[in-house]
Write a structure and sequence with these properties.
The chain has 192 residues and is mostly beta strands. Helices cover 0% and strands 36% of the residues. It has strands at residues 5-19, 24-40, 45-47, 119-130, 133-135, 153-162, 166-168, 185-190. Strands 1, 2, 3, 4, 5, 6, 7 and 8 form an eight-stranded parallel β-sheet that branches.
């Protein structure tokens, strides 16, 4: 994969996948990749950033009922809004087998809260080499006082894992006085 590419929700099975040329493979929603070998070159990314629940939606959605909206929750509680604060969203899902989408931050009128991160599952029967990035970060709140979305989930099963890259499922930043999104969930297992 040498150009920016999007895969919609579903399950994909390949022998070998190489993400290269500073390109981004985007997983839209909940995506499972079954593969023999997966390599992510330096400067390239496998991303589910902002591909979870939209603002104001999801089991950990930030409050949209007050003037300063809460951040979305998932692996961690969403941050409360400032002053007349909207509550941050609650935690949910499994820390052992994280497969849920991240929740959206609270909406401020027409200003949407950030979307939660998507759900990445990688089943790699041989080698996973990460010199780039795997990310399922939540989106930032949009203007005024909307909340940030929570991070999504990254669930990896691999025989070997190597490389100098980064794996993240961070919450998004709240807009101005909105709460920030809680972190997502990451689990990595070695299959012998």
């Amino acid at each position: 994969i040498g150009t920016n590419t999007t895969w919609n929700a579903g399950t994909y099975t390949y022998d070998d996948v190489l993400i290269t040329g500073t390109s981004t493979l985007t997983f839209n929603g909940t995506v499972t990749l079954n593969v023999t070998n997966l390599t992510i070159d330096s400067g390239s990314t496998l991303s589910a950033n902002g591909k979870g629940y939209e603002g104001g939606q999801g089991p950990g959605a930030g409050s949209s009922t007050t003037s300063r909206k809460g951040g979305g929750g998932y692996g961690g509680k969403g941050g409360d809004g400032y002053v007349s604060s909207g509550s941050g969203g609650a935690t949910y899902g499994s820390a052992i087998t994280p497969v849920d989408l991240g929740s959206g931050g609270g909406n401020y009128g027409q200003q949407k809260g950030g979307s939660g991160g998507g759900a990445i599952k990688l089943s790699v029967s041989e080698n996973l080499i990460i010199n780039g990035n795997i990310t399922a970060n939540g989106g930032d709140g949009n203007d005024v006082a909307s909340g940030g979305g929570s991070g999504g989930s990254i669930y990896i099963i691999a025989q070997t894992l190597s490389g100098t890259g980064k794996i993240s499922a961070n919450g998004g930043t709240g807009a101005r006085e909105g709460g920030g999104g809680g972190g997502g969930r990451i689990a990595i297992y070695y299959e012998t």
